[in-house]
Structure formats: C-alpha cells, structure tokens
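Worked example

This section walks through a single chain of length 344. The input is the sequence exactly as stored; nothing has been trimmed or padded.
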Amino acid sequence: MALSNDLAALVGFASEAVLWGVYSVLFTTSLILLVRRAPTRGLNTPILILGCVLFASCTSHFALEFYHFFTTLNGTGVDGYANETLPLVCADILISLSDFLGDCVLLYRCWIIWGKNYWVILVPFLSAAAGFSCIMEVIHLVVTLDPNAPVAPAALVPLGLAGYALPLATNVLTTGLIVARLWHTASTAEARCRGRMAGTVRAAQHAVAIIVESGLLYLVAQLVLVVLFALEHPAQAVVAVMAVQIYGIAPTLIVIRVALGISSDFSTRDAPPAAMGPGLAHVSWELHASQDPARPSFNVRGGPHSFGRASGATEESGPTLQTDAEYMEMKAYECDQSEVAVAV
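Given that input, the structure is written out below as tokens.
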C-alpha cells in the first residue's frame, strides 16, 4: 500500500506528539539544572532566552497541528487531511523558524568559542538566513498558486530544496568550526606546557563528543528532510513535523549535559597522576563564587618542578605559585578557555 499524503500527515502528527512530550521533559529538566547552578556558576542568559524562544516556537507548531487534527477530523474526516489550511500555513512557517532558531543557538556557541568574532559566523549565518527566506517564498508561492496543495508543486521544489539545504550547510559549517576551535585550543595548551596537561586533551574530547553527538541528531533530521523533499516523497510530511521537535531537542541535550558537568567543566582530579606529569598534580576547571562565572579557574597544587613555596608559606597554608614561565603558559590557556566555558 502506497503512503498517501493524508496518511503521512496523520503519522507525522502522532510522531510529533511523542517527540513534543520528550522535548517538554528535557526542556523542563534543562531549566531546573540551569537555575540550580546559577548561584555558583552564573546564568547563561543568551542560551536561556534562545532556549525559551525555541521551545515556544516548537510548542506553537504542535498546538497548530493539534488544532488542525481536531477540527479537520471532526469536520471532514481523513480525506483531504493533508490539504493546506491557514493553521497549516502558520505551522509550515514555524518549521523553518524553529530550524533557524536552532541554528542561532549553534551560531551563538560558535561565536563565543571563537572569541566573539563576527567574521567567523558570517557565512553560516547568511546561509541560515537565506534558507529561511527561501522557505518563506515557497510558502508564499504555494498559497498564491495552489492554496490547497498538500505538498509544494514540482516547479517550486528547487527553491524549497535550497531552503532546506542551506540550514543543513550552516549546521555542518558551524559544528566543524566549533570542533576545530576546541581541538586547536587543547592541542595548543598541551604543546605550551610540554606534555604536562594531558587532561586538557581529554577535556576537549569530551566537549567535542557532546557537540558532535547532540548535533548529529539535528543533522540527520535535516538531511533526511532534504532527501525526501528532493524526491517529492509523501514521507516528507512525517519527517518535517518530527524535525521541528528535534530542532529543539538537540540544543537542549547539550545544555543538560553541560549542566550535569559532562563538558568543559571537566576536571583532571580523577585522572591518574602519571598522565598529568610531575609538575602538575591537580588542574580543575571549576568556577568559584568569587569569580566571574564565565571564567574557568586553575587550581594548581604544586609539584617539585616549578611551583616553589613563597616566603612565609607553611605546610599548613600550602604551596604558593611562583610567576615562572610554566605558570604563565597555564594562565594563557585559562584565557583561551574563558570563552569556551561561557558558550554552553
């Protein structure tokens, strides 16, 4: 039995309902975790605002789909369920808006990690904005030419394909930039301290894993939608509405994992001493209440190599760092990581 547009739309609505429930739980969890860590680590206001706006957009889309489901089945039944209506037009706009907002979250993280360099995110941002504009024009043309069409006419497929492919390009470019920056920063720090900061590479691997794993869900949803839209397959109606919730779930997963301390809050206190080198017994990326919450702080407990005891120090008071070359290199790494920590 071939998949019809009406059946695909019904399956898509049911699938989106499940994903919206998952997203609601994850979003609530992320808010609780962010608020709990705010007194000690500060509140990342831009991420919080973007997350709330994205959740509102995804929830509004589901509400419109639910309204269409209730009114259409109650009025006309299954036949013609996928035909375009005013609520569905608004829902179609929210699909691309949610995609654009999800890209904005990713772009914000990239901007922070690259030292708030606007030039780095210029091309990915233009790609995302162009994709959103293409979809808006497709919706306008569909409503003008054939208001009841369940899918875009064949003549509009190239424009719609560009509208979905450009945000996909934004995702790939931005994720690549974030991963490259994280890896470069950790590798540079490792080279600076002559192998005494083996834990920094592990920390970078944790951060990269979170970005890639959570972003992969986003990427797969975009890619499948692009392929199905290009093939003009009815299953695009299933994937499109599911993708809306995935656009919100993916960045929320990153927030949760970071708030639980699985990213750049990584501490080498659990690493074996041999892996950390003789001159560095403890390096922690902890945030202290007396500090700017966006800046990680090195808590270094001395080794015999270069951290001597200052005059007046005792066994009880502990070692005091001398301002030598190795300490300055570690402080340089701290500056590199200050932007990375606030990104999530």
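What to look for: Residues 263-333 have pLDDT under 50 and may be disordered.
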